[in-house]
Every structure is written in C-alpha cells, then in structure tokens.
C-alpha cells in the first residue's frame, strides 16, 4: 500500500530529468500523476516510462497510480488553466503539486539579453506563480506544494545571475505562501538541488557537459553530481505525511555544496 494511494499529483516539467523521476516516484506511492511539458514527443515517452515503472497501462484515466500528460507551457495562463481543467475532471481535487518546470540558459552579464532574461523569469518565476495560484481552488485540505529551488539561488556562479535570481524569488514565494496557506493545512516547501545529471545540465553546458559534470562532482563532499532519482526521494518525502511538520523549509539535495 502506497503513501499516496488515491491521491492526485501534478508535476510540471515532468517529461524529463527531475520532474520525470518525481512523477515515477509519486506514482509508485499510488498517486495519479498529471505531468506537463512543452514537447509532445517527450511527454509521450514520459508516460510510457512512468507507466512501466508502476506496472500500469497508461489509460489516461485519473484512477490512481497512473499518469496523464497534458502538453503546455507554464508561463502561458491558458495552458495552466487547461491542465487544471483535466485535473478537475478527475473529481478528487489536488493533493500534491510539484512546481518544477524551469530553464537555465547560461549567460554572463554582458551576454544576457533582455529576451533571455525574460524567458528565464517567465518560466521559472511567473510559471511557478501561475502554477500555484491557479491550483488554489483544487488544493485539498492538507495538500503539499513543493517548489523547485536551486543552490544557485544563494550562490554567485558566473553565467547564472538571472537563473540564480529566479530561484531566490522561488524561496521568497515559499516563505510568503507558507504564511498565506497554512490556515488550510497546506504545506509549501522548496527542494533545492545542486548539480544533477539531467538534460537541463546537458543543454546548459553543451559540448562541455561531461567535463563540467566531472569538475562539479569533484568539488562536492559527495565526490559526484546527483541523480534525478535522489531528488525525487526528497520530493516524495515532502509530498507525504512523513513531512507533516515541515512548513516553509528549503531542503537541499546538493551533495553538500551549500553546507560546507
């Protein structure tokens, strides 16, 4: 028996990387998971992956322990509305919301364009705001809202100023929303990964990805970068009643990066 049997979860950015690993983990605990992403082909692969992991056929029916994909961009309000209309059709409300969608194109201050800055903040910040605000009518009493932060939100890595600023905003959101939603028993927390082996990292570093992964891992107490499944375990902890007394926290899953 899973800890989320009969529950409904939403994972944005759920087609690859940390989002996909989290969708697998939540489904394994018995939740029916709605995943979003901007690319149809990746979503189809993700549905097959999650379904295989939990031993279910992907019927698309919100019946628990399965997965439904809804294509959309979290920075577009109409797309977020369409996602929650699908959730509403299930008739069970929403118990777990993992607002995970994000981008991290690298650019130093002199390279950062207005368009790139807007893209980062539209998806990482506005997208998180829309994802949580529009979920409010569906969130059940005692629901768990989890936001994806980053160690970059507190660091000062070259080429990551806009991304770091966007993740610092996520931390501020979590603090304020904890105060605003606690009266409904809704917990808001942040999971902050360090370097994790995801397609996002491959895209950010391009041809230097393998070199940068090795370099980053060597500088961590863990002596390696993380795996998406390791972050997914932290998400599962925050999603279930195992974390019932955890409110407004920032849970680092960073191999010790920000701890020593």
UniProtKB/TrEMBL annotation:
Matching InterPro entries: KR_dom (IPR057326), NAD(P)-bd_dom_sf (IPR036291), SDR_fam (IPR002347)
Protein name, per record: SDR family oxidoreductase
Domain called Ketoreductase: residue spans: 7-199
Pfam (any one): adh_short_C2
SMART domains: PKS_KR
Keyword Transcription regulation: no
Family: Belongs to the short-chain dehydrogenases/reductases (SDR) family.
Assigned keywords, A-Z: Oxidoreductase
Organism for this UniProt entry: Streptomyces chisholmiae
Keyword Acyltransferase found: no
Positions of transmembrane segments: none
Highest taxon of source: Bacteria
CDD domains assigned: SDR_c
């Amino acid at each position: 028996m899973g800890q989320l049997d009969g529950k409904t979860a939403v994972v944005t950015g759920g087609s690859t990387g940390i989002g996909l690993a989290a969708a697998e983990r939540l489904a394994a605990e018995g939740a029916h998971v709605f995943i979003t992403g901007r690319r149809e082909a990746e979503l189809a692969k993700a549905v097959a992956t999650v379904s295989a992991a939990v031993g279910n056929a992907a019927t698309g029916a919100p019946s628990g322990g399965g997965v439904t994909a809804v294509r959309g961009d979290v920075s577009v309000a109409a797309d977020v509305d369409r996602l929650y209309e699908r959730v509403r059709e299930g008739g069970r409300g929403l118990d777990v919301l993992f607002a995970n969608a994000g981008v991290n194109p690298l650019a130093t201050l002199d390279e950062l364009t207005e368009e790139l800055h807007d893209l980062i903040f539209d998806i990482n910040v506005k997208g998180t705001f829309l994802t949580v605000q529009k979920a409010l009518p569906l969130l059940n009493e005692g629901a768990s809202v989890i936001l994806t932060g980053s160690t970059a939100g507190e660091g000062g890595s070259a080429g990551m100023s806009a991304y770091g600023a966007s993740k610092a905003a996520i931390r501020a959101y979590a603090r304020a929303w904890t105060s605003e939603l606690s009266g409904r028993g809704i917990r808001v927390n942040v999971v902050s990964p360090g370097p994790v082996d995801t397609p996002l990292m491959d895209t950010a570093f391009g041809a230097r990805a393998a070199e940068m992964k090795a370099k980053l891992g060597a500088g961590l107490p863990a002596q390696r970068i993380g795996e998406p499944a390791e972050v997914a375990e932290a998400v599962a902890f925050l999603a279930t009643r195992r974390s019932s007394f955890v409110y407004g926290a920032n849970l680092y899953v960073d191999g010790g990066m920000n701890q020593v």
